[in-house]
Write a structure and sequence with these properties.
With 136 residues, the chain is of the alpha+beta class. It folds into 2 domains: 2-38; 41-129. 54% of the residues lie in helices and 14% in strands. It contains 6 helices and 5 strands; from the N terminus they run βββββαααααα. The strands form 2 sheets. Strands 3-2-5 form a 3-stranded antiparallel beta sheet, with no helix packed on it. Strands 1-4 form a two-stranded antiparallel sheet. Helix 1 runs antiparallel to helix 2 and helix 1 (49-62) runs antiparallel to helix 4 (106-115). The longest helix has 17 residues, at 68-84. It is globular. The chain starts with a strand and ends with a helix.
Length: 136
Amino acid sequence: MHISLRAGDKIYINGAVLRVDRKVSIELLNDATFLLEAHVMKVEDATTPLRQLYFIIQVMLMSPADCENAREMFRSAVASTIAASQNAAFAAGLRDVDRLVESKRVFEALKAARALFPMEAEILAAGRSMSPTAAA
């Protein structure tokens, strides 16, 4: 796999953080878990249930040697998020993310969670646009 980075970019590979000082192209020749800086969520951006799940999965990916606490936190958070979801498609997507995490396919789980961001945004926007009388 070829990855191109610009000066100052960071990449997270198997728990290590690398920053390049100039434009560079790297090739990963074996299986490695990596995350580009553009896909790293800051803790202050984990403002919704799905984004919090994404952040927890990200922690598992970035610190693979000590991710058991994050895995336990994920199990609890995903179960409560699925239970609270009233949208069948969103709940099904969360169950897919859960299956990927449980099968230790963390990078794929992260991608699947990110793909649910637009759906969560629509659900949250619809909930905010409900009038108090319609919600009752």
